[in-house]
Amino acid sequence: MKYQPLSSSLYIKNREKFCYKLTESSVAIFNSNDIMPTNADGTMRFRQNNDLFYLTGIDQEETILLLAPDCPNPHMREVLFLRETNEHIAIWEGHKYTKEEAEATSGIKNIQWLANFDQVFNTVMALCCNVYLNTNEHLRAGVVVETQDARFIKECKTKFPLHTYHRAAPIMHELRGVKEQEEINQLQIACDITDKGFRRILSFVKPGVTEYEIEAEYLHEFVRNRSNGFAYQPIIASGASACVLHYIENHKECLAGEMLLMDVGAEYGNYNADMTRTIPVSGRFTERQRAVYDAVLRVQKEASQILRIGTNIQDYHKEVGLIMQSELVDLGLIDQTDIKNQDPTWPAYKKYFMHGTSHHLGLDVHDVGTMHGPIMPGMVFTVEPGIYIQEEGLGIRLENNIVIQEGKGYFDLMRNIPVEAEEIEELMNS
Fold first, then answer.
1. Cα 292 to chain center, whole Å?
2. Would 3 be classed as within a structural domain?
3. pLDDT for 144
4. CA dist., res. 42 & res. 168, Å (int)
5. Which of 130, 261, 275, 386 is the most exposed place for a label (fewest CB within 10 A)?
6. How many domains does the chain have?
7. 261-280: pLDDT as tens digits
């Protein structure tokens, strides 16, 4: 791994929080993600299951975590199962965790090889009544492959039909939605690396460069700062392409007079930044571009102020919509007649601002956490309003990442990343 690992104390604390939520006489199982194939003998880059990583800090394939906090045998209350290495694996794939290294990383004392899992699991199941199993229950999840967790659920229910089964996901969503300070520190590093990438391209962008060249500049800066690369598929959209919300082709030449929308973020230690900036390719805003840009920036600043403790995220989105509505009226894009005759389920402002303003951020870019309960201290959100004017080929979005703080409003993890129009122009022309 390129990143500096966190202390095992975080993962010990996370497991304690999770186990506190379990009913009496319970066992919980978390599986690592599969290694996904390409064609022939190829595989995709491995990405750890974020729930397993949250509870252990272990960033390796073929890993299983067993938690049974009430087990009569104290030795079996926390067990971590790892792939046993050998000389062949070491030569072809490289170093794998030793038992000592896994204990140091996770804080779990009982480290065993995967070959022992069935025996240990059968023993613990005989001593427990309730079983917590994990699934992907993100509201926008589109699961089209059978995961290791899904296969395990089928096997477990077939083998142990008389146990009572529970969902681990709601507990994980509740816990992961509120970040510990160590997690916020990792997010800050990811944002700082993203800042370095953005500053790098401000002096690079000019008419004639291509979107993929800009993407390459970001990647270079991210990796040289110990990131694994992009937190998600980057959007580098010049001109009218900025009106395509998930434009990822990144193949066009940037032309004089266009705006360039960049939705990029660095990943660090499995935590993700999520930034959007929109800059003038020629280094100067036109009057119209500046008017729309300033409108988006005002909405972003106001939205950050009202994303506060106790607010329901759905009510927050409605409130931001009214702020955007006022800006669109001032820009001449909608008028009072449009507002009077609007469909309440799809307000007039949605023609130019059709997506939400904020989502949770953390180990997943669209992180787990409540989207209906009240906002709590320690939650981390994006704030990303945008205006997309198809008829003008102009799309502008601005996005920062903020931490909700107790009694302090919010803390902006991207406070150092240039966003004011004057600073953008100055840096592009220096």
1. 28
2. no
3. 81
4. 32
5. 130
6. 2
7. 999 999 999 999 999 999 99
